[in-house]
Write a structure and sequence with these properties.
The chain has 253 residues and is α/β, with parallel strands linked by helices. It is built from nine helices and eight strands.
């Protein structure tokens, strides 16, 4: 059974059929899903989802694109809410320099949310885009190795992967590994022990081949597992079994 470690089923892309889609997941080979907050609004939506579906868990955090409006009250709400039942991580947090120049503000929010995770003894889900060195440096200076977690949608080099792996983090691998232009990620997967990989969709985004361009969903992870299996000389079932074990250990489910 597949464990989707990172999805956004509160997204408006699922407004028409969210309930029906999630109700069918177990029949489509998906055992667990972690719905990941990216804004204050989506954190609150995530809490609603995990109450309705026994196999959906949650992560609460604010994406670097959304931190500009955060207040002390928001941080206090997060610090209290991460103790709710079925909250298994703090995320999606980190740095994104692709669209934003507020680097100091992003770093401050990243560090503050890491502190929340440390206090709650929860792993962190890290978003990092065009910010590899700063992400690593901030994690190192804040002793993120003592917290643990996953680098979501890993997109850097195999050399950078080694640095994050050496800190004890997992790499989140999703649809990009199936893309023809995903050669860099394929090399990362080849070099990464399967015991340090978890599967993720980032649904509704990053849909794997052969459904690229359509809305993503957790049951499409079978295609990601098949690609990883080819790259590592394993069967898809072996990939699913090991990555599900990894995810359960990481999220303590």
């Amino acid at each position: 059974m597949i464990f989707d470690t990172h999805a956004h089923y509160d997204d408006e892309a699922f407004d028409d059929d969210r309930e029906q889609l999630l109700e069918r997941m177990r029949n489509r080979g998906v055992e667990y899903i972690v719905n990941v907050g990216a804004s204050m609004a989506s954190c609150k939506s995530t809490i609603g989802l995990i109450r309705r579906f026994p196999y959906v868990y949650g992560a609460l955090g604010v994406h670097p694109d959304e931190v500009a409006e955060l207040t002390d009250d928001d941080y206090n709400w997060l610090a209290k809410s991460v103790y709710k039942p079925k909250i298994v991580a703090v995320g999606e947090i980190g740095l994104d320099y692709h669209w934003n120049d507020n680097r100091e503000q992003q770093i401050a929010a990243f560090e503050r949310q890491m502190d929340i995770a440390r206090e709650a003894e929860l792993p962190i889900i890290i978003h990092s885009r065009d910010a590899a060195k700063d992400t690593y440096d901030v994690m190192k200076s804040n002793k993120a190795d003592e917290i643990g977690g996953v680098i979501h949608c890993f997109s850097y080099t195999k050399e950078m992967a080694k640095q994050f792996l050496d800190m004890g983090f997992y790499l989140g691998i999703g649809g990009v590994v199936t893309f023809k232009n995903g050669k860099k990620l394929k090399e990362v997967v080849k070099c990464t022990p399967i015991e340090r990989i978890v599967l993720e969709t980032d649904a509704p985004y990053l849909t794997p081949e052969p459904n690229r361009g359509k809305r993503n969903a957790s049951h499409y992870l079978k295609y990601v597992a098949q690609e990883i299996a080819q790259l590592k000389g394993m069967t898809a079932k072996e990939v699913i079994d090991v990555t599900t074990k990894n995810a359960k250990e990481m999220y303590r489910i």
